Amino acid sequence: MPIPRVTSKVALVAVAALLAGCGREGSNPADPAPSSSRTGEAPVHRAWAYEYVSDADPVGNQVLDIAAVSQREAWAVAALHEAGGSGARMQMLRFEGSRWQQYDLSSDLRDALGSGTLSSPTLHAGAGSAWLFARVDHGPGTHSTPIAARFDGTRWLPVALPEDSDMAGVAVLGPSDIWALGKPKQRTAWHWDGRGWTATRLPLEAQAITAETAGGDLRVAGNIPDPEADKADESDPDHPKPRPLRLAAARWDGRKWREERMPDVETPDARFPGCRTHIPTLVARGADDVWAMGIEYGPYTGTRYAPPGDRPCALHWDGKRWSKSHALPAGILDARRVRGENGKVSRIARPPYVTGITGKVTEVDRKQAFRLAEIAPVPGTDEAWGVGTAELGAFGDANFSRAVIVRYRP
User: Fold this and answer.
1) What are phi and psi of 225, to 5 degrees?
2) Rounded CA separation 402/53 (Å)
3) What is the 8-class DSSP label of residue 28?
4) Euclidean distance between CA atoms 307 and 182, whole angstroms
5) DSSP assigned state of 56
6) Number of neighbours of residue 201 by Cβ within 10 angstroms
7) Burial level of 111, CB count in 10 A (0-12/13-18/19+)?
8) Which of 199, 185, 265, 251 is nearest to 221 (CA)?
9) Among 108, 191, 222, 295, who pairs with 156 as Cys (CB 3.0-4.6 Å)?
10) Residue 367 forms beta bridges with which residues?
11) What phi, psi does 210 have (nearest 5°)?
C-alpha cells in the first residue's frame, strides 16, 4: 500500500517525530549506515539516498518543504544563505523524472511579488496539481501579505486570496477543488472552485485537514476549547498552561460541515478533565480508515508545567465512530524508522556523509547531522521524498550546512 502523506507544516516538539511522516528530528545526528543491526535495535530496512545537495556552505541552508505531484514530478522550496549575506533567499526546485533543477519562481510571480520577497512557503499537491501558499515580506516596518499560486503545467499563476485570510492546512482534491483552513479561531474553511473562494463555517477550531479523501469524505480535526480553562492561568499568568481541550472532527457532506465527537484523551493524573492535545495530523487511508494524531501531554507539576510524560496518541475512524488507538498506521514514522503493515518497525539507514568544505569527508565531517523537516510519499508507490539539511556545527572553520533532498526506496 502506498505510504500516505502524513505531514506537519509546523515544527513540533521532538517527540512529535513519532508521528507518521512528521520528519523533524532532535539535535542528535542519525546513526551512520550500519552493516548489521545492533543488539536490541530494529532491523535496518534500506536507506535514504541523496537526490539533491546544495553547493552553498553557510549555516542555515535547508530545504523547507516538498510536494510530489506524480512519480515524475515534484516541487521543493529551499532557504539558501549566501556567504556574508544578511538573510535567506527562497529557491524553488523542480523534479522532472530524472533530477532536481532550480526553477525561477520570481519570474512567474514578478507582478504578485512586486518589490517584496517570499517567506514562509508551503507546497501542496494532489490530483495532478501543485499549489504554493506563502507570505510576501515588503521590508522593515511593514506587514507581510499572503500569496497563493498554482502550477498550470507551464508556469506558476498567482491566485487571489480572500481578504484578511491566512491559509493553514490545505487539501488539493482536483485542479478546481481546493480546500484550505483559515486560522483556527476563525472556524472557517475556504473552498476554491476554479473561479473564486467560498467560506464555510466550521463547528470547531480546526488544525488539520485530510490531504486526500481516499474514497471517503473530506474531514477536518481540531478541538472545541473550554472557556473555563482560562481561569487556570489567573494564579500564574506568566506561565499559561496547555488547555484541556475537547477533540472533535467534522465531515463535509456536500452542503455543510457536520461535527463528529471524538473521545477524550486523558490520564488519571490530569489536573483538569478532558483532552490535553492538539491534532496536527489527519490522514485518510480509506472511507473506514482515518487517523488523527497528536501529542498527549504529561502531567501538571506544581504551578509550572513540566512534560515528563509526553507521548504520541492516535484516534481512529472505523466508518462508524472515532476511538482511541494504541497503535499508529503503517508508513514512515520519522527519518530513522518505518512501520510495516504487519506492525513491525524497521530502521532506515541515513545516507552517506556529504563532503565537507575541503571537498572530502574528513574525520570531523563524520560528526555531521542529517535532519529532515518534511517527508512526503511518491504517489502510487511505496517510495518517499525527504527534505531538510546535512550540517556540521560547533567545529569552527569546518562548519557547513547543505540543503538536501533524499529519496527512500523500500
Assistant:
1) -65, 155
2) 6
3) S
4) 29
5) -
6) 10
7) exposed
8) 251
9) 108
10) none
11) -65, 125
* Cell numbers that stand for 101 in this block: 533543477
Q: Are 219 and 249 in contact (CB under 8 A)?
A: yes
Give the per-residue pLDDT at 225. 77
* Cell numbers for 248: 472533535
- CB-based burial, 148-171: b 16+ in 10 Å, e otherwise: bbbbeeeebebbebbeebebbbbb
Residue type, 354: V
Q: Which residue has the cell 530513522?
A: 336
Q: What tens digit of pLDDT does each residue of 321-348 get?
A: 999 887 888 888 788 888 888 888 899 9
Spatial contact of 281 and 290, defined as CB atoms under 8 Å apart: no
* Per-residue cell: 9: 507544516
Q: 70-79, 180-189, 217-226, 308-317: which range is least confident on average? A: 308-317
Give me the residues paired with residue 338 across strands: 332, 346
Q: What are phi and psi of 150, to 5 degrees?
A: -130, 150
C-alpha cell of residue 172:
488539493
- Containing 250, the helix (H) or strand (E) segment is strand 245-252
Longest dimension (CA), the chain: 62
pLDDT of residue 245: 67
What are the backbone angles phi and psi of residue 110, rounded to the nearest 5°? -55, -45
Give the residue carrying C-alpha cell 512519480.
Answer: 71
Residues 6 or more apart whose CB falls under 8 angstroms from that of 243 comprise: 225, 226, 229, 276
Cell of 33: 549506515
In the numeric block, which cell numbers belong to residue 144? Answer: 507581510
Spatial distance between the Cα atoms of 207 and 222, rounded to a whole number of angstroms: 5
Tell me the residue length of the chain.
410
